[in-house]
Amino acid sequence: QKQQERRQQRAQQQELLPAEILGKHPLQNRWALWFFKNDKSKMWQANLRLVTKFSTVEDFWALYSHIQLASKLAAGCDYSLFKDGIEPMWEDSQNKRGGRWLITLAKQQRHTELDRFWLETLLCLIGEMFGEYSDEVCGAVINIRTKGDKIAIWTREAENQEGVTHIGRVYKEHLGLSQKVAIGYQAHADTATKSSSLAKTKFVV
C-alpha cells in the first residue's frame, strides 16, 4: 500500500511540474476534445461529453493514438476539438458571431481521405497554422453521417473577411485540395435557421 501511495505522490508531483521540465513541447493553447453520440431520447447537450484536455504536443499524440479513428465511428457521432473555454456549439458566446469553413465528403471518401483530412485539421489547429489569424479560430468539428461526412473549422467572427479567407486558403492548402475544388464558409447565424445545405455561402476559396 505504501508503494502505491508513493506512486500516486510521484504522479501528482509530475502533474505539478511545468511541461518543459518533463521534456514536453507546450502548445500555444490548451485544447479540449469533445465527443457527441446521437441518442434521440436525450437532449442534445446530454449527448455531448468532454473527453479530455491537453496542452502539449506529446499529450495530443498520446490522445490521438488511443481514440477511435473518425472513420470507425458510428453514424450520428461527432468529434470536436475546441480551445479550452469554448464549447462546441454555435450558441457559445465566442462562436455565435462566427461561422465555419465546411468540407463535405462523399460516402466513399470515408475510407480514403476522412482520417487524413481530420488529422490535418487537428494539426492546423494545435500548430497555429493560420499565422496572425490563428486567434480567430475557435475549433473544429467532424460529423459522421450516413449521407456523407463533414469536417469544419469554426472561426470567431464571420464579418472578418480578411481573416476568414486567409484561414480558408491555408486550410485548403494543408488538405492538399486542388485549385478546382471550392470550399465554402457559412455564418452560424445562417445555419442556425436553415439546414447547412440551404444556408447561403458567405465566402468561397
TrEMBL record:
Entry annotated with the keyword Plastid: no
GO molecular function list: RNA 7-methylguanosine cap binding; translation initiation factor activity
Keyword RNA-binding listed: yes
InterPro entries: TIF_eIF4e-like, TIF_eIF_4E, TIF_eIF_4E_CS
UniProt KW keywords: Initiation factor, Protein biosynthesis, RNA-binding
PROSITE patterns named in the record: IF4E (PS00813)
Entry's family note: Belongs to the eukaryotic initiation factor 4E family.
PANTHER family: EUKARYOTIC TRANSLATION INITIATION FACTOR 4E RELATED, EUKARYOTIC TRANSLATION INITIATION FACTOR 4E TYPE 1B
Protein name per the record: I4E1B factor
Organism encoding this protein: Platysteira castanea
Lineage: Eukaryota, Metazoa, Chordata, Craniata, Vertebrata
